[in-house]
């Protein structure tokens, strides 16, 4: 009955690899998000997406790309991974923009 | 730059005491939200207060909003060990929510 789920929970990979993180929500929400939380717990939005519009935070490198096969899924693809990409990545969803957001459990990415 | 900033950065109290956390922001908002994050988990929404509201309650939580001072406070009454977590405020800025750095609350039993 998990509302927002992410896989995998942990991801360890080497520099230069390409990886994906999957996110699914069963809440029927229109908007989904990806956040990056660094080691200091600072949470930064990377993308927001509804069925009409993808909004990208300008500070996010273009190595990161969201892919939405349908309204319930927003996957995160990362190309050419770098050490600085190590962080916890959270997926979230909300019924509409700026409403309360429901977060997934997070994916801890470690790049070695 | 961050829209919301919490104060204090860390707070340690005894079980049963009240905990107060503050959030300041820089530009006008439509609403302000508070979230809790337990260690190793995702964020959980606690409460949303709109810019035309001054106070809101939910169980042991009380949130106030002062738009003239661009600040909000979260009060947790009669704290429990299970309240140990990080607490974040989030404000809307343009087309996104911006989270502060959080307050780490530790409730000792």
Biggest sheet descriptor of chain B: 6 strands, mixed
| N- to C-terminal distance of chain B | 37 Å
Mean pLDDT across every amino acid position of chain B: 93
Oligomer: heterodimer
- Kindly name the structural category of chain A: mainly beta
Helical residues, percent of chain B: under 10%
Distance between the termini of chain A: 34 Å
Pattern of helices and strands of chain B: EEEEEEEEEEE
Class inferred from helices and paired strands of chain B: mainly beta
Helical content of chain A (DSSP H or I, runs of 4+): under 10%
Give the mean pLDDT of chain A.
Answer: 92
Main sheet of chain A? Answer: 7 strands, mixed
SSE topology:
The complex is a heterodimer of chains A (112) and B (109).
Chain A: E1 4-7, E2 10-13, E3 19-25, E4 31-37, E5 43-49, E6 54-56, E7 64-67, E8 75-78, E9 87-94, E10 102-103, E11 107-111
Parallel strand pairs in A: 2-11
Antiparallel strand pairs in A: 1-3, 3-8, 4-5, 4-9, 5-6, 7-8, 9-10, 9-11
Chain B: E1 4-7, E2 10-14, E3 19-25, E4 31-37, E5 43-50, E6 55-58, E7 61-66, E8 71-76, E9 85-93, E10 96-99, E11 103-108
Parallel strand pairs in B: 2-11
Antiparallel strand pairs in B: 1-3, 3-8, 4-5, 4-9, 6-7, 7-8, 9-10, 9-11
Structure description:
The complex is a heterodimer of chains A (112) and B (109). With 112 residues, chain A is mostly beta strands. In chain A, 0% of the residues lie in helices and 49% in strands. Chain A contains no helices and 11 strands. In chain A, strands 2, 4, 5, 6, 9, 10 and 11 form a 7-stranded mixed β-sheet that branches. Chain B is mainly beta and 109 residues long. In chain B, the strands form 2 sheets. In chain B, strands 2, 4, 5, 9, 10 and 11 form a 6-stranded mixed β-sheet that branches. Chain B has a 5-stranded antiparallel β-sheet with strand order 1-3-8-7-6, with no helix packed on it. In chain B, a hairpin with a 4-residue loop joins strand 7 (61-66) and strand 8. The termini of chain B are far apart. In chain B, 37% of the residues are buried. The mean pLDDT of chain B is 93.
């Amino acid at each position: 009955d998990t509302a927002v789920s992410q896989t995998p929970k942990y991801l360890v990979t080497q520099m230069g690899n390409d990886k994906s993180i999957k996110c699914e929500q069963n809440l029927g929400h229109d908007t989904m998000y990806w956040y990056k939380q660094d080691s200091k717990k600072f949470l930064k939005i990377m993308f927001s997406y509804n069925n009409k519009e993808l909004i990208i935070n300008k500070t996010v490198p273009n190595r990161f790309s969201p892919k939405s096969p349908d309204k319930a899924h927003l996957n995160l693809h990362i190309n050419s991974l770098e050490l600085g990409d190590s962080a916890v990545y959270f997926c979230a969803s909300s019924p509409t923009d700026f409403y309360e957001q429901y977060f997934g459990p997070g994916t801890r990415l470690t790049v070695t | 730059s961050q829209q919301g900033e919490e104060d204090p950065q860390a707070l340690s109290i005894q079980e049963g005491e009240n905990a107060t956390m503050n959030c300041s922001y820089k530009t006008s908002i439509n609403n302000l939200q508070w979230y809790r994050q337990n260690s190793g988990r995702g964020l959980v929404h606690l409460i949303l207060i709109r810019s035309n509201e001054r106070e809101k309650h939910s169980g042991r939580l009380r949130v106030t909003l002062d738009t003239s001072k661009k600040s909000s406070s979260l009060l947790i009454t009669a704290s429990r060990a299970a309240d140990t977590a990080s607490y974040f405020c989030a404000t809307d800025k343009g087309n996104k929510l911006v989270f502060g750095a959080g307050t780490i609350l530790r409730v000792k039993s």
